[in-house]
Amino acid sequence: xxxFASHLMDQIRSRFAGVDTCPVxxxxxxxxxxxxxxxxxxxxxxxxxxAAIPDNQGRANTGSRHLNAVIAKAKADMARMTNAKSGxxxxxxxxxxxxxRIIMNACLHAGSGTVLGSTLEHPATRSATARWSKIAGxxxxxxxxxxxxxxxxxxxxxxxxTPDTRVATIVHTSPVTGMGTDVAAISAAIRAKAPDCLIIxxxxxxxxxxxxxxxxxxxxxxxISPYKMFSRHGFGLAWISDRMQAIDHDALIDxxxxxxxxxxxxxxxYATLSDVVDYIEWLGATIDPDDPFRAAATAIKAHEKALTDxxxxxxxxxxxxxxxxxxxxxxxxxxxxxxxxxxxxHAALPSADIVDQLNASGIRTHLRKDDxxxxxxLGPLGMDACxxxxxxxxxxxxxxxxxxxxxxxxxxxxxx
Length: 416
Ligand SMILES: Cc1ncc(COP(=O)(O)O)c(C=O)c1O
Hints:
The protein is α/β, with parallel strands linked by helices. The protein folds into two domains: 6-39 and 292-415, Aspartate Aminotransferase, domain 1; 45-279, Type I PLP-dependent aspartate aminotransferase-like (Major domain) (Aspartate Aminotransferase, domain 2). 42% of the residues lie in helices and 15% in strands. The protein contains 14 helices and 15 strands. The protein has a seven-stranded mixed beta sheet, sandwiched between helices. A four-stranded antiparallel beta sheet has the order 11-12-15-14, covered by helices on one side. Helix 8 links the parallel strand 8 (198-202) and strand 9. Helix 11 runs parallel beside helix 14 (397-415). The site of pyridoxal-5'-phosphate (PLP) has 11 residues, from helix 4. Residues 94-96, 122, 124, 171, 175, 202, 204-205, 225 line the site of pyridoxal-5'-phosphate (PLP).
């Protein structure tokens, strides 16, 4: 199976807010999912109803007990969906804040040795390891990613890891190249030489694109940003292992052991995670009711691959990006690691102009520049900028066709 059948696609799309309309701009095609995926209608409703509740958690009254139950259910739902068999989930200000906090505590706990990561990583991780390795008296080592594939392998980690590696970081998927990494294989490569290393994974770009299996990864931390996984803005979510939760961290004196949450939590935000899990479970059950999460992950991947293949190689009589003279695709045309994202540039047209012209045609993409966010990818390629087109499983082949038609007009105009 590649594309979702059209009746299922209609059902999928009906569950999301703003699927073809922006409340400000009006009708538009949404290919800016890496900046924030569409929000489930159920998440909008849940957020609204919880926003009206004044009660706090942990009180001896019915309303308060309900809030605690909602949070416990959300954590249990997330554990089911991500196959987390131990450890705990907790909420923070954002994905960035959680990566900083977990990496800080891991480095301060380790106190010596090496912090190993890669140049593929988002600056949230690279900045946190740079800062906290220095403060903790550790050495930061960054493995260069492969420029041609926009990817990093377990072999590259294996060649770089040393027995003194006490903290290691892995990006599950790059938000600039769109390539996913093999977290289980990288983690195994690290543990082969540094078995007790604390391994922290940035899953923020991966989370919407098909499956998280925490038990299979043998890691100590996994961070997501729920607004990039069909929930909403305003919070981040982390999972940490039993080992990680026990290390020294900011907490209230005499408070509950192993509590990592800072102050009163947003129950409504937690409740939206159950909405996300319900949705993925519903989607998967339409394919395989016995194993819905795996089925959903497989189907999402297949659908997104069909869309990115169409974007790269064309659909109907429309040429794909790979057929347009002057276009360079980051990571190449047929990259097996691609997760729903295509970044490219045109030799004769500034990327900013292409993003503007696509916007004028009602197609929302994003400009990535050689700056503190994307310079790690674009700098080594000698690119000052690129256009990022990011999809999710609710995007359709006809949206890709509209994008390719707009690109055809834009590139013909440039060469006329
Ligand atoms: C891989 C990755 N890491 C970290 C971040 C930062 O996430 P946030 O802005 O939600 O803190 C992003 C944001 O897109 C990302 O894609």
